[in-house]
Amino acid sequence: MKKMFMLMIVYFFMTGSVWAAGAVQIESEQMTVNHLKSQAEFKGGVHLIRDDFELRCDRLLAYYKNNTLQRAKAFGRVRMKQGGKRGASEKATFNQATHMLTLIGKASVEDKDGVVRGEKIQHNLETKHTQVMKGAGGRVKFTIEGDDAPGAVQ
User: Fold this and answer.
1) pLDDT confidence of 123, banded at 50, 70, 90?
2) pTM higher than 0.70, yes or no?
3) Hey, which residues does 109 pair with through a beta bridge?
4) 124-140: pLDDT as tens digits
5) How many CB atoms sit inside 10 A of residue 33's CB?
6) CA-to-CA distance for 70 and 63, rounded, in angstroms?
7) What are the structural domains, with CATH classification, of the chain?
8) Which of 10, 93, 84 has its CA nearest to residue 53?
């Protein structure tokens, strides 16, 4: 029964143009599909992969229409990776129409040039552009590694 559900969800996400790129693969410990709401919920060690993008979280809600993922919400220990960028937050949202992943709550994104932190960070999966927004009364923070930092190229 569990294998049948996994095969069904893999088929669901591999048909159509899911994120208008390569196929999406999602693995988790548990999955529930609500066809009336066009929603799939994944729980426990969720791992989503699409092309060069990876997302890990504790829980993921995926909303679809005509075999295409429209939007998603990730909760609990959210981590993302795309190329040389790595990010983390408490929760995240993804919007297919804008290709925008929004990391929310103690959000951070780092790459070879440094680390940015803020309450909310928007990362465009198509353009790979990142924008940091401060929280209420907060500030954004950007750290650039110096030449004497461990691992710095000399």
Assistant:
1) confident
2) yes
3) 87, 116
4) 888 888 888 876 666 66
5) 17
6) 6
7) 2-142 (2.60.450.10)
8) 84
